[in-house]
Amino acid sequence: MHILTQENSIASYFLAQLRDVTVQKDSMRFRRNLERLGEIMAYEISKTLPFSPKKVQTPLAETTVNLPIEFPVLATVLRAGLPFHHGFLNYFDASESAFVAAYRIEKTHDLQIQVDYMTSVSLENKILLLVDPMLATGKSLALTYQAMLRFGVPRETHIAAAVASPEGVAHIQQELPNVKLWLGALDEKLNEFSYIIPGLGDAGNLAYGAKL
Ligand SMILES: O=P(O)(O)OC[C@H]1O[C@H](OP(=O)(O)OP(=O)(O)O)[C@H](O)[C@@H]1O
Ligand SMILES: O=c1cc[nH]c(=O)[nH]1
């Protein structure tokens, strides 16, 4: 498990703005900060991709550079995943994408997740990167992964979240033991409504407006 804010970097500044109850009211800044975190996490994850040397012709000479030979398929969970996904796509610009509509029906400890619309390219033998800013109970991402297997079995899976709870991490580690976790921050706990504490509130609402 890799936790970005365990090391001092500009990522902590973006995350602090996402959490700040005043700053987060600016929905454009909120979305942009999710995107910026996605960009930083893409950079970190890129270090694990397969690379091979390729020749590049500059105007003056030929040189050899190590380049990624495969980009991950980026799968995201609507709604809050969208700006985060966009950040990953800014860096993994040749990635294919998959989208899942999943939402928490009742925000209690036994909350149910509804997985609706799903679309994906083939995942067979690919590197899959599931991105969702909030890993709370972990149920949305675990169900999303299971539901996505109808598109093929990835050979390697990563999950990226901006903020996670220890309960969510434990759920993912139990349900998906081979998945690599990339977190912005690992918070303290869940509250009785399955919100992350201290967390940042409802990411989907902050990015796109309060659900009816
Ligand atoms: O780990 P879990 O307990 O499953 O919770 C995490 C989910 O909650 C949020 O979505 P939400 O259901 O609030 O939908 P929204 O993004 O459309 O607002 C978030 O984007 C995750 O998908
Ligand atoms: O704290 C939480 C938990 C789930 N979804 C959110 O948007 N926030």
From TrEMBL:
Its EC number is 2.4.2.9. The keyword Glycosyltransferase applies. It comes from the Bacteria. It is an enzyme of class 2 (transferase). One of its GO terms (molecular function) is uracil phosphoribosyltransferase activity. Keywords: Glycosyltransferase, Transferase. Residues 10-209 form the Phosphoribosyltransferase domain. This is Uracil phosphoribosyltransferase. The gene is upp.
